[in-house]
Structures are given as C-alpha cells and as structure tokens.
Amino acid sequence: MPDENFEERTEQATPRRRQEAREKGQVAKSRELASVSVLLSGLFTLYWGSTFFYHNLVVSIRYYFRNIGQLAVDDTNILGMAYLVLKQLFIILSPLFLVVVLMGILSNILQFGVIFSSEPLVPKFSRINPLEGMKRLFSLQSLAELLKSLFKVFVVGWVAFSTVERELHNMPLMLQKSTFQILAYICEISFEIFWKSCGVMIIMAIMDYLFQRWDFEKNLRMTRQEVKEEYKQTEGDPHVKARIRSIQREMARRRMMAEVPEADVVITNPTHLAVALRYEPGEMDAPKVVAKGAGLIAQKIKEIAERHEVPVIENKPLAQSLFKYCEVGDVIPESLYKVVAEVLAYVYRLKGKVK
Description:
Elements: H1 15-23, H2 31-48, H3 50-66, H4 78-112, H5 130-137, H6 140-166, H7 179-220, H8 224-235, H9 238-259, E1 265-268, E2 273-278, E3 288-294, H10 296-307, E4 312-314, H11 316-325, H12 337-354
Parallel strand pairs: 1-4
Antiparallel strand pairs: 1-2, 2-3
Helix pairs in contact: 2-4, 2-7, 3-4, 6-7
C-alpha cells in the first residue's frame, strides 16, 4: 500500500484523542443552538412576565413624571440620580437577565458538559498568522457561517415583511385607537414576528448542531500511523511486549526445569506429555505439580528426570488429566488423589528396592 495512504485521516478518533481534545477545549458546539435558546428564554420571560415588567416600569415612570418639578438636578446629584434610576431599572429587569444567563450556560452544558480549560487562552502564533487566517477565511466552516448568516437575514426579513404586509390594512385604524391599544398592537405584531423567526431558527440550530458534530468528528479523525503511535504510547510497542513475554516465559521455564530434580515422579503420555509431581508429607496437603510440558518441553523434563534418577512412569490418562486441570504450582485435584497415591506408593517401593 502506498505510504501516502497512511496520511489519510480515515480512522475514528480514539478515546485518548477525544480526551486530549476536550482538555484543550475542542468540542462540538453550535452557537446557533445557544443563541436560539437564549432568544426563546428571553421571549418566554417577556411574554409570561409582561404584566410584572409593565406594572413596575409604569410605576417608576409615573413617579418621576409626577415629581419632575420637585427634583433638583445639578452637578452634585446628577450621578446619584442616574445611579438610582439604573438600579431600579436593573431590579425590574433582573428576572429577564437571570433567565437569559442561565439558559446561555445550560444550553452549552447540554451540548458538551462542563469543561475547565485554559488552552483557548494561550497565545498562539497561528491566530495572527496571515496564511492561517486565509485558510480559516476560505474554509468549510467559514462558508457554513456565511450561509447561515445570509439565511438568517433572509428569513427574519421575509417573516417581518410578510407579517407587516398582512397588517397594512389595519394601520389606518390605529389612528382611532388609544395610546395603550396602539402599544399593545405593536407588541402583538412584534411577538408574532419573533415567534415565527424563532421557529425557523430552531430548525437552523438543529441542522447547525448536526453539522458541527459531523465537522468535529471529521477533524478529529486520525491516520493509521497516528493510531499505531498512540497504541505504542499507551500499551507499549507490540514487538517489545512480545519480547518481554518471551523472556518471561523462558525464565519461568528455567525455574520449572530447576524443580524437576526435586520431583518424586514424572508421569508421561508417553512421549507427548510430561508432568512432574512432588510430595512432602507433613508440609503439603496433597502432591503438587512442579513442572509440566508438551512436545519438546516434555522431552526435556524426561531427560532431566532420568539424569537425576527421578522415576518416569507412563500413565496416559493420568498424564492427560494432570496436564489439563493443573498448572505449575497447583496441588492435584481430589478426584486424582487415589490414582496419584497408587503411583507414589509404587515409586516409594521402587526407591526402597534400590536402597
């Protein structure tokens, strides 16, 4: 396969790659979703709290207009009066501010959770590099943002125009209405425009979120070489790990072979399997497997046993059972006690004859 294929980002991002991106503040997020959430929450608050806002604003305005002749305005108290007016206005509108701020935070948390990262604040040369700036300017992301902005302007303009055009025949009738009725009519038309615009923007926000997810996943993809390098960093080089396992097996094999001369008997099958047993009365509850092997290892065990005059007994069923159910260092299972006891008794009698 050509080398350039390894540079194609065809692999899905690994959990480690995703975690690193998250730590850097790189997540899939839609500004449109946050914007429409804030707009909708503000509209709902104004709609359901209109009586509260209207009543408190009217009370404040009446107070200042009724006492306008008694208020002395000069250089010494102008700042104090401005502070009181702004403070009162902030208290009246504080529910609206609170709802909008909370919805702005919640809309982002629902998209990507809670993230604390200082990486976006770190100065980077790429942000002021003209070449990188040109790449961002003509990127797919910039094109998508431009199309979204144009579409929003078109939609909002079309909704506003169609709504006002429909109400043109009612405009002359407003001359006969009171100021409160005119204001209520304007608010009703404005809210209608807002609701219709928000309906379209919700659809745009959902589409934008899906696009942002797709674009984020595409940018997060990895090459096969990057996946291999990450695997080496997290799990270790497979060749090194294989070499370590090979050395560990060789060391375990040597320790096992060193136990064969101390065995009481080696049971064979007769050429393919070999299992060495040792039993110390008073120290062990049951005979223990000190070595086992198949093929060449079995042949090596038999050679060491013969060299150190350890009896080698051929018992195919017993050898197969011990090899299958016991590991090196395990005591034999209770089901084999009787058979192994008979073998050991024979070995002990054999050793007595030799003596």
